[in-house]
Amino acid sequence: MSSRAGLGNRRSAGVRTEGDRARRFVFATLLVMLLGLLGACSRHAAETWDLTEIRGYLPDLGFSLKTGGNRTITAADLRGKVVLLYFGYTHCPDVCPTTMAKMAGVLHELGASADGVRLLFVSVDPKRDTPALVEAYAKAFGPQCIGAVGTAAETEDLARKYRVAYEALKPDSDGNYDVMHSKGIYVFDGRGRARLLISDTDKSQAIVHDLRQLVSPRA
């Protein structure tokens, strides 16, 4: 009788052992899942932005315009690059050259990382800005800069798409005129998603910091 009791005890012990193993397996699985979640959260938390985040507020990058040589350039041509979308015009007396010079300095500070960035200067003055003129204007600020222009209708549609305001003012007696336009620069990641907004008050150091993060593979 004692031998049967001993056998029963051993069987009970065996059942408890199998149950313990199952519980340990479930616990280990949950632990791995938790660590993976914490790792993902850590990676997300590591991405701190100094600029204004606009992810989800604007459509993905999409356009078809003309650049130097009357070549067509589209968003697909810039796939894989961080794109800075800026609307201006070549006859702009102050804001545009100041902004472009500032961004040229940012690109210089980026060093080798600047190869992963393109500054797209889109004209809001298609009446005067030809593809050759706007491309030459942009390239004067650096090799990463691209100038492009569309028809009046294409310019209007693109500006509306990205909530850019512009208006040509009344010409003077010589036919010269200025164009009032938004100053912000939209930043799109390598997948064409709108991510950040650069305002005219943002410091170059903040812009460099955020662009470095976007250029990195994990962004």
TrEMBL record:
Q: Which Gene3D superfamilies did the record assign?
A: Glutaredoxin
Keyword check for DNA-binding: no
Thioredoxin domain residues: 52-219
Keyword tags? Copper
* Keyword S-adenosyl-L-methionine tagged: no
Cross-referenced InterPro entries, in alphabetical order? SCO1/SenC, Thioredoxin-like_sf, Thioredoxin_domain
Per UniProt, what is one Pfam family of this protein?
SCO1-SenC
Protein family according to the UniProt entry:
Belongs to the SCO1/2 family.
Q: Provide the protein name.
A: Thioredoxin domain-containing protein
